[in-house]
Amino acid sequence: MRIRMPRKSLRFFGGALVGLVTALVGSPAHAGTATFVTPTGATIGGHPVDAQVTFTTSFHSLSITLTNLEANPTDVAQNLSDLSFTISGGSLTGAFLFSSSGQEITVHSNGTYTTGSTGLAGWSPTLSGTSGLLDDLSGPGHAGPAHTIIGPPDAGNTYSNANNSITGNGAHNPFLNQTVTFTISGSNITSDTTVTAATFSFGTTSGSDVIGHMPVPEPSSLVLGLMGAGLVGAVRYRRTRRRA
Q: What is the rounded distance in angstroms from the CA atom of residue 89 to the CA atom of residue 200?
């Protein structure tokens, strides 16, 4: 016995799948959100680096979540120390750093650590035109060479790989623990403003840069998209045949 799905059900199911894929894959330009990551295999000074940043634009506001994903780093060169980016559909002229937040973390000489208070990141902003920079190493009020962003510890909850540029280093400690958030306010930022490029910088010396890119959608999302589009196409084809 063959069961035939009603045409309305097919159309609803196909549309729902397309909607789901749109939500999963999304277009940063329309959603007001853009995420950039370091390329697979990126290194600084022979050490691997792994970072992610998400930008969210809204009325007069740009929110930034910056994360160091490199677990159990060996050297301070793997720590995030600045972020530069460009925008379109708006301007950063006259904008200012409204807030920043990060948790301090001090890594001891034996690789254990102590977390501290959550407060200002101590990164200095430079905002003009379509370009923005958040910098820990220079500018008024910067905290560098302390307050670089360190990745998570190892599975045993220590920094077992860390050398003395991290462990017990009085100049570099305290670091900021994994994720730091920033909010930029400006009258020329809207929900239609998009971030078009981002560059990560690492270490305590300026210029150790890695250009970020937008992550490719996972294959499962693409499969769902093809399924949804196929169902909608099948319904339309069936309607055309009946009319003919």
A: 22
